[in-house]
Write a structure and sequence with these properties.
mainly beta
Length: 109
């Protein structure tokens, strides 16, 4: 899931989860290259299901970025580098086939 994304400069925040290891990571991207990435927070959370659907949310409010998984607050960080931009959904298979289904996507202002 991406937030505060600008497609012209490829900057924004990227939330990734890995259900198999119940891991999450929030990265700030400042450009098109991996070297432009900066990990803000990451860890392991029992809120991430490794056997069923996960509901993800990112709340961005005055520089405070809060991550929710399955309606549980997982982590938060202060970073006001980017204050506007688009949201998006992403799926990535780093080592094996991945299927992602997005339903009931919502945006609150």
């Amino acid at each position: 899931m991406v937030a505060e994304y600008d497609s012209n400069t490829s900057h924004g925040y990227l939330l990734q989860i890995c259900p198999g290891g119940q891991q999450y990571i929030l990265t700030r991207f400042a450009g098109f290259h991996a070297s432009d990435a900066n990990v803000l927070i990451g860890g392991i959370s029992s809120s991430i299901s490794n056997s069923s659907t996960n509901t993800l949310a990112i709340a961005v409010n005055n520089g405070l970025i809060t991550i929710y998984v399955n309606h549980q607050k997982v982590d938060s960080v202060n970073d006001s580098t980017y204050t506007s931009g688009a949201i998006g959904l992403v799926a990535n298979a780093s080592s094996s086939q991945t299927t992602a289904t997005y339903i009931n996507a919502r945006v609150w202002d």
